[in-house]
Amino acid sequence: MATTGSNSNEWMEIAFELANEALVAGEVPVGCVLVFGNKIIGKGRNEVNEVKNATRHAEMVAIEEAYKWCENNQVRPSVAFSNSQLLVTVEPCIMCSMALRYLHSEAVGLYYKFILITFRLLIADQTVPGLEAERAVTLLKKFYLGQNPNG
Amino acid sequence: MLNETIISICMLAIRQFKDHLPLDGLTHVKRIRKDEHGNYAIIVCLRKHLSDISELAMQEWIKNQPISWEYLGNLYIVQVAATSALTRKQFEVASKYWPISFYEDKRISTAIEGKLFNQEVIQNIYNNMDIAISTALENSMFKIGAVMVDPESNKVLAKASDGRSRNVDSSLLKHAVMTCIDDIGKMHVAVENTNNSSKLPNEESNNQRGYLCTGYDLYVTKEPCVMCAMALVHSRIKRVFYAVEDKEYGALGSRYKIHVHEGLNHHFEVFKNIYRDRCLQLQ
């Protein structure tokens, strides 16, 4: 497992800010940032209830934003995605994992560097202490102790 | 020996076997059987538990188990069904080897008998797939079409073709199913906005339906992939009808069975082969 680079703490902090924002908005608190070339090209937080679409997970939102970034900055999405890192506060679901796989494998074949940094992997990696996992879980607990308006 | 005595011995043996030699993972398999000659036979243990030792050593091993053996005869090996029977036919075949328990799933039986849908519903199913096929033709690269239908009214709520192209820089995630789900969300947002302006007190049932595809059916010309299948789980889809299986990526039966995965919190019914031949030509 590769490390995320010197700014990973800072990026993870932004991911947590996004997760917090989701919580305040009454969404499952998950946040993520997509980083390419030391720059955030996509940010996302869960917005399922807001847009009444169960597929609007943080990762999907960030990916969409990154596509726009590529368009505005004239960077080929295949290059951007396959050299990106995703920092997300909670391990991606099956849908998002598959989406991420499509983005790197179809884009550049074998030589992808798409690194998933989930709180679980962070512990295994020891790049960031378990404190992060606790933070993510605390956020989730806050949400699930409340009531999801849409079940 | 009196029948009652045999039964009580068997009962005792079964109880001991259950504790000492459980048939792990074979809860559907009956421990005891009575053949046509009135002879009883009991399953002692699984062959795999003894796979590394000889027949003789096996007998010796079994005799050392804390069970009273005096009335028991020779040991022999039988084949039993590895999984429980879902259909009566499976039950009948499996029972020829060794008795198993069977709880008939009426819905599955009705489906197998071809009685799940009446003629009108079948016509609707084909009509909806027909719409999915027309929708599929709107994209020149990946000819896949998806249609979301409310089965209660048979009304088409959304339809989408596949938005991908062969260019790796195009939107790789614009699968027809994902776009269809997106459109349903937009529709619900629009409905809510209209309702908010005219505040109908009776709209609670609509709100409870919420952001999801609860109660809706999806028709799609090709079996959904893992991403789309999981999106349908998240969306609480009611049923999925598809035409052609996808051996490589298909997640509703071919490669994976996301719709019945035990670890997931929503399950749904899937029907395939609707206009399969027509949809094969789309690819």
Automatic annotation (TrEMBL), chain A:
GO molecular function terms noted in the UniProt entry: tRNA-specific adenosine-34 deaminase activity; zinc ion binding
Superkingdom per UniProt: Eukaryota
Keyword Metal-binding recorded: yes
Keywords for the protein's UniProt record, in alphabetical order: Hydrolase, Metal-binding, Zinc
PROSITE patterns tied to this protein: CYT_DCMP_DEAMINASES_1 (PS00903), CYT_DCMP_DEAMINASES_2 (PS51747)
CMP/dCMP-type deaminase domain span: 6-139
SUPFAM superfamilies in alphabetical order: Cytidine deaminase-like (SSF53927)
One of the protein's GO biological processes: tRNA wobble adenosine to inosine editing
PANTHER family membership: CYTOSINE DEAMINASE FAMILY MEMBER (PTHR11079), TRNA-SPECIFIC ADENOSINE DEAMINASE 2 (PTHR11079:SF149)
Protein name stated in the entry: CMP/dCMP-type deaminase domain-containing protein
TrEMBL record, chain B:
GO-annotated cellular components: cytoplasm; nucleus
MF terms in GO: catalytic activity
Domain CMP/dCMP-type deaminase: start-end pairs: 116-271
Keyword set, alphabetical order: tRNA processing
GO biological process, one term: tRNA processing
Protein family: Belongs to the cytidine and deoxycytidylate deaminase family. ADAT3 subfamily.
Entry protein name: CMP/dCMP-type deaminase domain-containing protein
Top-rank lineage group of the source organism: Eukaryota
Keyword tRNA processing attributed: yes
